[in-house]
Design a protein that fits this description.
alpha+beta; 107 residues; 2 helices
Length: 107
């Protein structure tokens, strides 16, 4: 009697949509509210660190992202010593504008 081993494909992919909480040169932190209430009847929020892995993504984020903007992130999860973050493969600006436009309006 022979048992065949089955190959199981595994997938490490994360797709997130959240509001930019913090901007750094090579990373952003996004806030994502949970879809259910806690014991106190309030919605908790998760803060996810997103590493901007390519120079092109870093340049786009520096030009277009501001704190409070809504952003979509596609990437993979990484962990180290209990810390979890997402390595961004693609980001989508869902509510952003060039920083120069904001400066021009103030003049």
């Amino acid at each position: 009697y022979v048992i065949k081993k089955r190959r199981i494909a595994m997938l490490n992919q994360a797709i997130l949509v959240g509001r930019v909480k913090e901007l750094q040169d090579d990373a952003i932190t996004i806030a994502i509210p949970r879809s259910y209430k806690n014991e106190d009847g309030e919605y908790d929020t998760d803060f996810i660190q997103v590493h901007l892995t390519s120079p092109k993504i870093q340049e786009s984020a520096a030009e277009y992202l501001q704190v409070g903007d809504i952003v979509g992130v596609k990437g993979s999860l990484s962990t180290n010593e209990g810390n979890v973050w997402v390595n961004a493969e693609k980001i989508t600006f869902l509510s952003s504008r060039p920083k120069n436009d904001e400066e021009e309006k103030e003049d």
